[in-house]
Design goal:
By secondary structure, this protein is α+β, with helices and mostly antiparallel strands. The chain has 10 helices and 27 strands. It is about 35% helix and about 25% strand.
Length: about 425
């Protein structure tokens, strides 16, 4: 990445604070705007590839087709050019209006839907990817949202977008800024692929370990499938001292308290079984004491039984005292040394298959305490359990390390966008 140098001679132009050698102009003075094509359902299936709203939400500020849609009988005037900037016209959430992405030529004629506004840049002073990044920056988004109007949903039209102020550095600087941000995006994308590959490897490893174990040559068929001959099959309820669920309080200011006793929700647990303390709610002490059933103890296994089914975590001393709600089941094992093995098995493909069967049978799938009580667990000797836990813990550590790297890169990108796209930091060109 290029060395950055401080900005000099900042001035206020067009309500944007930018360096003195930058211009500020309106989008409408540099681009033609056009609403997308309307079509009927009978035209869908064959014809030109169409960009829909969902295709604009790539983490990069560039269109990425999510699900291919083809539509016939669309006029040539809706065909996209390389570099066209696309905006979302309406959003139920005000902060989502005007979300944008740049179209890049994909080798075939592509059109865009009526829920989108196209801006076609017509100035040779503008490097389109620079503008694409600016429109995704905190300042760019703030300016767009400020131009939108709200009735029941938030809308933005061509007239409002044409008034959008945009900064225009010298062309070489635009190109260098876009190149720097694109390099960080490449690193994020590479890290994402490593994470996804590692997750797939862990998934395969779990299937193998929970069906074949470690070093076995003799197997038997059971109600949970083929497992090593010397393993048992035990119902989860036989291993538990308590199987219950939390209680959702309705008093004492919940969920609006800013401090108090920790209240764990489904979204308070991440994919690695770690607690996200920033997503805890809080309850008052009286409320905590009144819901004895949902008072958590160190070593309890939590499992989401509504919403994002099957998410698990083990309660640690540093989050106590704490409650949880009705969407979270509480498993208190008789032997705490089994906690990690049981948690990993609950994360495995076996429980996910069980959840899928519930999804087919019910419009609103939930795991109930009866499901958990009778859930069958393949059960090796304790020393083999420990070996399986060690292997899966190492796999988790690798994934978490890459996830931390991705988070750092996302933070770096956010900081660079704030600095480079406003000229607070300058690049050497």
């Amino acid at each position: 990445m290029e060395v950055l140098q401080d900005t000099y001679n900042e001035t206020n132009i067009g309500r944007l604070s930018v360096p003195s050698d930058w211009e500020v102009t309106k989008l409408g003075d540099n681009a033609s705007l056009k609403n997308g094509a309307n079509f009927s359902t009978k035209d869908v299936g064959n014809g030109r590839l169409m960009v829909n709203v969902k295709d604009l939400y790539n983490f990069r500020p560039f269109v990425k087709i999510v699900n291919e849609t083809r539509v016939g009988k669309i006029a040539d005037s809706y065909i996209l050019n390389d570099g066209d900037i696309l905006f979302v016209r309406s959003s139920l959430v005000r902060e989502g209006v005007g979300f944008s992405a740049m179209y890049r030529n994909n080798g075939e004629e592509t059109v865009y839907s009526g829920f989108i506004i196209r801006a076609r840049i017509e100035s040779d002073k503008i490097f389109n990817p620079f503008i694409a990044y600016y429109l995704r920056s905190g300042l760019g988004r703030k300016k767009i949202v400020s131009l939108a109007g709200t009735v029941t949903i938030t809308n933005i039209g061509q007239e409002a977008l044409s008034m959008l102020p945009i900064p225009i550095p010298p062309l070489p600087e635009q190109q260098k800024i876009a190149d720097i941000l694109s390099t960080v995006d490449d690193q994020i994308s590479t890290t994402d692929k490593i994470i996804e590959k590692s997750k797939e490897l862990k998934k395969g490893l779990m299937q193998q370990l929970f069906s074949e174990g470690i070093g076995h040559t003799e197997f038997k068929d059971t109600k949970v499938g083929r497992i090593p001959k010397d393993w048992q099959v035990i119902q989860l309820g036989e291993l538990c001292e308590v199987i219950t669920k939390g209680t959702t309080p309705t008093t004492n200011g919940f969920p609006y308290l800013k401090t108090g006793i920790n209240f764990v929700k489904v979204e308070s647990i991440n994919a690695f079984g770690r607690f996200i303390k920033e997503k805890f709610a809080f309850v008052g002490e009286d409320c905590y004491k009144s819901f004895k059933r949902s008072q958590l103890k160190e070593g309890d296994i939590l499992i989401s039984i509504a919403g994002a089914l099957g998410r698990t975590a083990i309660v640690t001393e540093n989050i106590l005292p704490a409650n949880t709600n009705q969407a979270v089941g509480i498993l208190r094992l008789k032997d705490k040394s089994l906690n990690n093995f049981i948690r990993y098995f609950l994360d495995s493909y076996s429980l996910q298959k069980f959840i899928e069967r519930i999804n087919v049978a019910s419009a609103q799938a939930n795991l109930n305490l009866g499901h958990l009580n009778k859930f069958n667990i393949p059960f090796p000797a304790i020393n083999e359990q420990q070996k399986i836990v060690a292997i899966l813990s190492e796999a988790d550590a690798k994934i978490e390390k890459e996830q931390e790297q991705k988070t750092k890169l996302e933070q770096l990108k956010k900081g660079l966008m704030q600095q480079l796209l406003t000229g607070r930091k300058r690049v050497k060109v």
